[in-house]
Design brief:
With about 300 residues, the protein is α+β, with helices and mostly antiparallel strands. The protein has eight helices and 15 strands. The protein has helices at about 5-15, 95, 100-105, 145-160, 175-190, 195-200, 245-265, 280-285, and strands at about 30, 30-35, 50, 60-70, 75-80, 115-125, 130-135, 200-205, 205, 210, 215, 220-230, 235-240, 270-275, 290-295.
Length: about 300
C-alpha cells in the first residue's frame, strides 16, 4: 500500500467497522508525524488522521487533519485546531480571518471540532467495497491525483508555517513540477510587475487588501484572478498543479463560467500556466475559446566556488 488514496480508503472503511487499531498506519508522512484515531474504548463519531510537526502535540497545537463525520458521510480536510488545550501558536491570520469554520460549513450541530477551519470537503460514497470522493460544491469527482494534490498543498503550507523543510514524497519529474508550480503561484504574486503577466494584467486589491491569490468562489478558489489593464475584463489564471490537461482546462472553463454569471463579464479570459505542453492540452484547448497557455522555465545554474586558500 503506497498511495495516499489507498490509506484514506482504508481509514474510511475501518471507521465504520468498529476496529480501533491504528498500528497498521504510517507513523510519518512528508517530515510530519501522523496520528490516527478511531476512538478510545468505543468508536468515535468523528475519527481522524492528523499530521503534526515534531514539536507539536495533537492535544495542544494546530495541524492539518482529516475529520470523518460518519453520520454526514463527509470527510473534512481541515486546518485543525486543538480543542483539548489552547496553543500559544496557531494558523496565520489569513486562514483564521477568511476561512470558514467547520461549524459554519455544516450550519448545524456537529459532534466535535467545530472551531477548526475547512480546507477541503469531500462527500463520501461507498458501493461494492469501492469508496468514491466528490467535492460537494460542484459534485465533481475527486480523483486520486486530486486527493494527493490537496494533501501536498496543505502539507506544504503547514510546513512553511511551522518553518519545517519541505520534501517531495515521490521523486519523479511530474511530482517535482507540481512543487515548482505551487511555489510559482507565490513567486508570481510577489514579482507580478516584473512578469509578462504583469505587463498586461493588474492584480485585484479591495479595501487595501490583495484578493487576487486563491480568489474565493462558491465552486472553489481561483489560483489567481486578475484584470486586463486595457479592457478591464477579468482574467482567470490557473496553474497546472499535478492535474491532467483535461482537468485543468475544465477547471479554467468552470471558473470562467462563474465569472460570466456572477460578475457579468462575457469577455472573461483564461490563462493556464504549465511546466510542459502536451497534445492532450492542445486538443482540450481547441474546444474552449479565449484561453491561452504560458509555459514557465526554471533556470538552475552552478558556479564553481573559488576559495581564498592557496597551496
Amino acid at each position: 500500500m503506497s498511495t495516499w488514496k489507498e490509506w484514506l480508503d482504508k481509514f474510511l472503511a475501518q471507521s465504520n467497522s468498529g476496529d480501533l487499531k491504528t498500528s497498521a498506519y504510517p507513523k510519518e508522512w512528508s517530515n510530519l508525524r501522523t496520528k490516527v484515531s478511531f476512538g478510545m474504548g468505543a468508536p468515535a463519531r468523528v475519527p481522524w488522521i492528523a499530521f503534526v510537526a515534531p514539536d507539536m502535540q495533537v492535544s495542544k497545537g494546530f495541524y492539518p487533519v482529516y475529520l470523518y463525520y460518519k453520520e454526514l458521510q463527509t470527510l473534512i480536510f481541515a486546518y485543525g485546531v486543538s480543542e483539548t488545550e489552547e496553543s500559544s501558536a496557531s494558523w496565520p491570520a489569513e486562514i483564521m480571518n477568511s476561512t470558514q469554520t467547520i461549524a459554519a460549513y455544516f450550519d448545524k450541530d456537529i459532534p466535535r471540532y467545530e472551531d477548526s477551519f475547512v480546507f477541503k470537503a469531500y462527500k463520501i460514497k461507498s458501493e461494492g467495497g469501492k469508496i468514491s470522493y466528490s467535492y460537494p460544491e460542484t459534485g465533481q469527482q475527486a480523483t486520486e491525483k486530486d486527493l494527493e494534490a490537496d494533501l501536498n498543498t496543505m502539507l506544504a503550507y503547514y510546513m512553511k508555517t511551522v518553518s519545517l523543510p519541505q520534501t517531495v514524497s515521490q521523486t519523479d519529474c511530474g511530482q517535482g513540477l507540481f512543487y515548482m508550480e505551487k511555489e510559482l503561484e507565490n513567486f508570481l504574486i510577489a514579482n507580478w510587475e516584473k512578469t509578462e503577466l504583469g505587463k498586461k494584467y493588474d492584480l485585484i486589491i479591495q479595501e487595501g487588501e490583495l484578493i487576487s491569490q486563491q480568489y474565493k468562489t462558491d465552486i472553489g478558489p481561483i489560483d489567481i484572478l486578475a484584470k486586463d489593464k486595457a479592457t478591464k475584463n477579468f482574467v482567470v489564471i490557473e496553474l497546472k498543479k499535478n492535474q491532467t490537461s483535461d482537468d485543468t482546462v475544465g477547471q479554467v472553463a468552470r471558473y470562467m463560467g462563474w465569472i460570466r454569471k456572477t460578475k457579468g463579464d462575457k469577455n472573461v479570459k483564461g490563462i493556464i500556466i504549465a511546466g510542459t505542453y502536451d497534445k492532450k492540452l492542445d486538443y482540450a484547448l481547441s474546444s474552449v475559446p479565449n484561453v491561452e497557455v504560458f509555459l514557465y522555465e526554471v533556470n538552475f545554474k552552478l558556479n564553481e566556488f573559488k576559495g581564498t586558500h592557496k597551496d
